[in-house]
Amino acid sequence: MNKITFEDFESIMSYDIGKKQDSCIEIEFCVDGYLDYQSSWLGKMLDIDTKKPIYWFGLVADGSEAYEFSSFEQFANAAVFHGRSITEIWDLISLLSIDACEVLERLSFYK
To answer: Domain spans of the chain?
Structure first.
């Protein structure tokens, strides 16, 4: 498990994914001390209709905690972790993979 700075996370999420529908960013992560968030996902993709970025969380396997946002600010400040935002709990976030690759290896792609 890897820890990165919030600034590095912002850099990843600000990456221009282009105009291709199949282009996206997918990050698998866990939240230290939260048993229900041990294999969660977040990312950025294009909305099929508007071709604008969507920022999303898929926090639990059954899909009951899936959220989409139209801006990074809404996404980063949404209180989806038991009333807290990812910004508030960033120190508890451990990345498991970025785009199905090793975290540190893939991080260099986004810098």
So the answer is: 6-104
